[in-house]
Every structure is written in C-alpha cells, then in structure tokens.
Design a protein that fits this description.
There is one protein chain. By secondary structure, the protein is α+β, with helices and mostly antiparallel strands. The chain folds into three domains: 21-126, no CATH class; 129-242, 2-Layer Sandwich (Tetrahydropterin Synthase, Chain A), CATH 3.30.479.30; 245-324, no CATH class. It has twelve helices and four strands; from the N terminus they run αααααααβββαααβαα. It has helices spanning 2-34, 41-49, 54-66, 73-81, 86-98, 105-113, 118-126, 174-190, 195-200, 202-210, 244-306, 311-341; strands spanning 129-133, 143-146, 152-163, 220-232. Strands 1, 2, 3 and 4 form a four-stranded antiparallel β-sheet that branches. Strand 2 and strand 3 form a beta hairpin. The protein starts with a helix and ends with a helix.
C-alpha cells in the first residue's frame, strides 16, 4: 500500500511537471502557429535543453515570416548559439528587403558576428550619413594645407557615405575614410598654384579628391565630398602664420646667414692662427740672426789667435763698419724729411 502511494505521488508530480512544461511552451507554440511561423513542440523543448530562449527565436521567426522572408528556426537558433543578435539580423533583413537591397541571411549573420551593427549598416545604405573631416571629436577642427605660393589654408569638409554591404566584413571603418579624405584634400591644395584658385573654386578640390577612389577596400561608398569651410590662416587676428612659404624662406635665409657667419669666423680664426705662426717664425729667424751675430766676435778672436787677422786689419774693419752705420743713419734721416715734405 505504501509503495503504491509513493508511486502515485511520483506520477502526480511527474504529470504536474509535464503539464507545466506543456503550458510553458503552449503559449509560445500557439503564437507561432497563429502567426504562420510554425515551430513544433519538440523543437521548443530542444531549444530549452540547448539553453536557447524559445521566445526570442519564435519572435524573430514571426517577424521574418510576416515580412515574407524564408528564415527557419534552425538558422535563427544556430546564429543565437554562435553569439549573434538574432533580432538585429532579422530587422536588417526586413529593412533590406523593403529597400530592394540584396542581403541574405548568411551575409547578415556574418556581418553581425564580425561585430558590425548590420541593421545600422542597412539603414546607412538606404539613408547615407554625413561625417566631418577632420573629426572634431579627435581635437582637430580644421585641416591644414599649404598651396604652392606658400599661403596656408584651413579647410573643413563633410563627407557623405553609404554603407557597402559587400565590403562590410573586412572593410576599413570611418576613421580610414576621414584620414584618406584629409590626405587627399591636403594633397590637392598642395598641387594648386595659388590659394586664390582654391578660394575661388573649392569644388575643384572636392571633385579631384572624389575622383581619387578613396573608398577602395572600405566598408563605405563615398557619395559626395563637400568643402564646408575654407579660410586663410592668420587673417582673424590670431598668431597663426598665413604665408608659410615666406616664413620658410626667411628661416632659410637666417640659417644661411648664420652659416656664412660661422664660415667667416672660421676663416678669421685660421687667419689669426696663420699670423701667429708667422710671428713665431719671425721670432725664430731673429733668434738665429742673433746667434749668428754672437759668433762674429768669437771668430775674430780665433783669427787673432791663429794669426790670420792683424791689428791694422781689425781697425780698418771697424772704420768700415762705423762708416756704414753713419751712411745708414744719414740715409734714414733724408727719407724722413722727404716723407714730411710730401
């Protein structure tokens, strides 16, 4: 008797559990059946056992079916298990279908799993968005460019882009578009002969940049590039330099001047060194002359000792030397008087 009671209790509990499970899935199953997006009870039970939210899968399938899309519950479940956003993918498929954009479930799921917002990409493909170049959020409000005449210009552009769903996976982001457009604008202005040409026809710059194919290998397609603002630097009372060319020429001239001065100082130092060297050589020669003159009395004394020089010879030599000294002094005095008379 006791065993039968326990068995009955177990059966009642099991029946209540099964009834609870049935009632839990019954509401979801009825919603799917009434919406034409039928999902079997066994599939709902399998989703629960695989830790998949049945309500989420059913809601996503109902949206797809009501939009006329053929998306099975297995495809949605597989995407959910892969970590994707099921509702976002279905919303993107519906938006793409209404806009006549060729987007299948596999591509949408790949875009979603790649970390891109596929629904936002479809909306951007339908309704292009405008991005500023340069990005003010990066701390730079204007692009800096210099024309061939050396005048510095400040440029701000607005780029209209449309998402390219085929290149969304693996394509470059908005930052690449901004960088390429900025580089193209700076290059186009740098090749302009004068800043006046840029101010008169800024559309030539945007057209030249647009024709450069800057959206290659990116997730976007550039629709248009518009110059929003262009001005000459330094004309608004700021300390910014407008004529960069003149400034560079001035700095180059100043550098050349300093280099020439350094070269002149080097030559002057070399000349001074050569002069000091010559003076040292003169002093050396004078010292040698004095040494030679000191040898004369010694030679005379030696000649006296050896009998090669007599007393009368010595007196005659002294007279000749005195006469020569007197003539030199007289000649020097006459030269001084002549210079004074002139």
């Amino acid at each position: 008797m006791g065993a039968l009671t326990i068995l009955a209790v177990v059966l009642v509990i099991a029946g209540l559990i099964l009834l609870g499970i049935f009632l839990y899935f019954l509401k979801v199953w009825i919603r799917a059946w009434m919406s034409g997006a039928r999902v079997s009870m066994f599939n709902l039970l399998g989703m629960k056992l695989r830790s998949v939210a049945p309500t989420l899968i059913v809601d996503a399938r109902i949206r797809a079916v009501k939009a006329g899309l053929d998306v099975s519950s297995d495809m949605l479940e597989a995407h959910f298990l892969a970590g994707g956003n099921v509702i976002n993918v279905v919303q993107a498929l519906i938006a793409a279908d209404k806009a006549n954009i060729d987007l299948n479930f596999q591509r949408a799921a790949a875009i979603d799993l790649a970390g891109r917002d596929v629904y936002d990409a479809v909306r951007t493909s339908v309704n292009p968005k405008v991005i500023d170049c340069p990005d003010p959020a990066k701390g730079t409000a204007m692009l800096d460019a210099v024309a061939k005449d050396g005048i510095r210009l400040l440029i701000k552009a607005r780029v209209t882009v449309r998402a390219n769903l085929e290149r969304l996976v693996g394509g470059a982001t908005e930052d690449t578009i901004i960088a390429r457009v900025g580089q193209g604008i700076v290059s186009a202005i740098g090749s302009s002969p004068s800043y006046k040409a840029v101010l008169e026809n800024p559309d030539h710059i945007s057209r030249k940049v647009l024709d450069s194919g800057l959206d290659s290998q990116t997730a976007f397609e550039i629709v248009s590039i518009d110059i929003a603002d262009v001005s000459v630097a330094g004309v608004s009372g700021t300390r910014e330099v407008a004529n960069v060319g003149a400034l560079l020429e001035t700095e180059r001239a100043e550098a050349d001047k300093k280099m020439r001065q350094a070269e002149a100082e080097g030559r002057r130092a070399m000349a001074n060194a050569a002069e000091q060297e010559m003076r040292a050589r003169v002093q050396e020669m004078q010292a040698k002359v004095i040494d030679a003159q000191a040898e004369v009395p010694l030679a005379i004394a030696q000649a006296f000792r050896e009998g090669k020089l007599g007393v009368m010879d010595f007196y005659r030599m002294q007279n000749i030397m005195a006469d020569t000294t007197m003539r030199e002094s007289i000649g020097g005095a006459e030269e001084q008087r002549g210079s004074k008379d002139d």
